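Researcher: Quick test of sequence recovery. Tokens follow.
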């Protein structure tokens, strides 16, 4: 039996999306019927398409099987994507095994938020998602592919790939991950060194050694941030091969899962008997599964932007109230850093996604009856992938191997998912409390107002924040500067909290999947640049952040508040290529709609 709240939220989304979803399905039906296909292309067009792939030219001329377009986010600056270097040449071999062919259709940019955090380049991060979506559309625009394999893992890359790919939703597609790097310096030890550095107790050399010890090889970072939340989400939506999310790079299991993904994709074309187009795989139920998985595992707050944006690309409308309602019904069954001490490798060893999906299905918290890549329905994803006698197989998933990391849905860490929507005279915001001690869920303290996160850090260094304080950082929304993550604030705010002060953050920016023990009211909407009330806050105003009752209030006399006007202006946006993204900033939707310029510009 499906949980009543999950059912009600799903029905709410279906009803709200009725017209837009119908228009989307009509679009992909037209595309399937009229889309230019290889047999119909002109001879010169085909010659161009085949010229770079002499080895497969005869098979492609014969049109005997699917031609797979590979859209890759490979680069070797981003550790998670460096593993993709040789994937295309291997995938071409595996496609031939399945009677298909494969070509690299195109590359998409893949920036690393970990590199750009706290610097101007970070202001391009969110809009890189739209750029990736546009690049994916260009890659698939040639009309020479009957299916696609999407190679991407990290923060904006998976959402961007899906947003672009869904406009070609008549094609079957599979997401292929690369897996997390092996465990290095534990995340809590890394965080402790960061806080010591913020206090001036260790120097840059010691900090750098700690960071290199944590981020030390190819693969995703091992904390449960946005990149690894992406992988969780692809599993509960059925867009990976089952169990593919958290298998380390370079292992036999990793290779066999990727091989199986290519073989599976080759069987899902429109000319076969198991047609599974992406636009039908990503339906309202799959989107609800993504939200439930996010809440049950304490995933990244960035997905309160990404899930709505992915959904809109498929004609589906989900809002923050849907997340809030689901959060009240979905238990937190995983503790992975920053919501616990374990990293994703320990999470995988304890049972990983097969265990999570098994537990959530057993309690009616996930839609099992969705169209998936890896099986008839989601139950295939509740089994554990292994290589036995050289062959890939899926076995029944045992009980949790470590109940400090994974617990049954009937005995969770928390009865709810730890996401809250806050509303009040400052606007609407999100807060993630799954890693925040309950006694810190309510903070009432005077405001200190900043227009740049670096100014906060300088004020901390000068000792000006040594008190109970609500740090307000405005002009960080998508229209102002591209909505960068403010992760650099985590160490100083954590230090203040450790010293016994009541501390909270209120911002129209993002805080990333690494947000943890400090209460942060983020994505505040409307943003300051659009005359949002966050821009009316003055130094010394008493601010109440209340995650218990879901309120975000400036405790200012109503008449005084109503008489205030915006007096500040945002810092200029130029340098590091940011001026080239003025169109994106000018078109960007509000955070609750996904903060996308592309979708807004397309009228979606």
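Model:
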């Amino acid at each position: 039996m499906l949980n009543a709240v999950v059912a009600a939220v799903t029905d709410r989304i279906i009803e709200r999306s009725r017209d837009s979803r119908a228009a989307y399905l009509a679009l992909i039906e037209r595309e399937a019927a009229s889309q230019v296909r290889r047999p119909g292309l002109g001879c010169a067009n085909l010659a161009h398409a085949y010229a770079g792939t002499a080895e497969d030219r005869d098979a492609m001329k014969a049109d005997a099987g699917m031609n797979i377009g590979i859209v890759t986010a490979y680069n070797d600056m981003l550790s998670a994507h460096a593993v993709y270097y040789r994937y295309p040449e291997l995938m071409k071999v595996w496609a031939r095994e399945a009677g298909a062919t494969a070509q690299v259709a195109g590359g998409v940019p893949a920036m690393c938020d970990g590199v750009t955090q706290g610097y101007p380049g970070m202001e391009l991060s969110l809009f890189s998602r739209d750029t990736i979506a546009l690049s994916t559309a260009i890659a698939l625009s040639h009309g020479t592919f009957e299916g696609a394999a999407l190679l991407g893992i990290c923060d904006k890359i998976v959402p961007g790939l899906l947003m672009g790919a869904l406009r070609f939703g008549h094609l079957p597609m599979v997401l292929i991950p690369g897996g997390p790097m092996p465990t290095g310096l534990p995340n809590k030890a890394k965080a402790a060194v960061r806080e010591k550095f913020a206090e001036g107790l260790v120097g840059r050399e010691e900090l750098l050694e700690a960071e290199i010890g944590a981020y030390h090889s190819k693969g995703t970072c091992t904390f449960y941030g946005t990149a690894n939340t992406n992988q969780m989400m692809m599993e509960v939506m059925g867009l990976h091969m089952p169990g593919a999310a958290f298998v380390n790079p370079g292992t036999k299991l990793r290779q066999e899962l990727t091989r199986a993904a290519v073989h599976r994709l080759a069987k899902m074309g429109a000319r076969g008997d198991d047609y599974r187009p992406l636009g039908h795989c990503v339906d309202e139920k799959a989107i609800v599964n993504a939200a439930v998985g996010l809440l049950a595992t304490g995933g990244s707050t960035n997905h309160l932007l990404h899930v709505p944006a992915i959904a809109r690309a498929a004609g589906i409308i989900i809002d923050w109230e849907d997340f809030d309602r689901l959060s009240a019904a979905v238990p937190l069954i995983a503790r992975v850093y920053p919501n616990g001490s374990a990293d994703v490798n320990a999470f995988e060893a304890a049972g990983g996604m097969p265990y999570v999906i098994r537990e959530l299905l057993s309690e009616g918290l996930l839609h099992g009856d969705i169209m998936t890549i890896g099986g008839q329905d989601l139950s295939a994803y509740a089994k554990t992938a292994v290589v036995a006698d050289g062959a890939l197989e899926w076995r029944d998933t045992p009980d949790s191997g470590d109940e400090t990391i994974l617990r049954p849905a009937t005995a969770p860490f928390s009865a709810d998912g730890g996401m809250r929507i806050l509303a009040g005279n400052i606007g609407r915001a999100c807060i993630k409390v799954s890693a925040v001690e309950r006694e810190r869920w309510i903070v009432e303290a005077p405001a200190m107002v900043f227009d740049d996160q670096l100014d906060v850090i300088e004020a901390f260094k000068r000792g000006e924040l040594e008190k109970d304080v609500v740090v307000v950082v405005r002009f960080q929304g998508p229209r102002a500067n591209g909505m960068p993550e403010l992760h650099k604030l985590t160490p100083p705010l954590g230090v203040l909290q450790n010293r016994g002060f009541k501390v909270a953050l209120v911002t129209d920016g993002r805080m990333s999947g690494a947000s943890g023990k400090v209460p942060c009211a983020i994505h505040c909407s409307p943003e300051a640049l659009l005359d949002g009330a966050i821009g009316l806050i003055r130094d010394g105003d008493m601010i109440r952040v209340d995650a218990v009752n879901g309120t975000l209030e400036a405790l200012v006399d109503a008449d005084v508040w109503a008489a205030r006007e915006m007096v500040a202006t945002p810092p200029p946006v130029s340098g590091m290529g940011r001026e080239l993204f003025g169109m994106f900033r000018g078109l960007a939707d509000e955070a609750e709609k996904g903060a996308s310029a592309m979708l807004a510009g397309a009228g979606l």
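The chain has three domains: 4-34+65-182+218-396, 183-216, 419-571.
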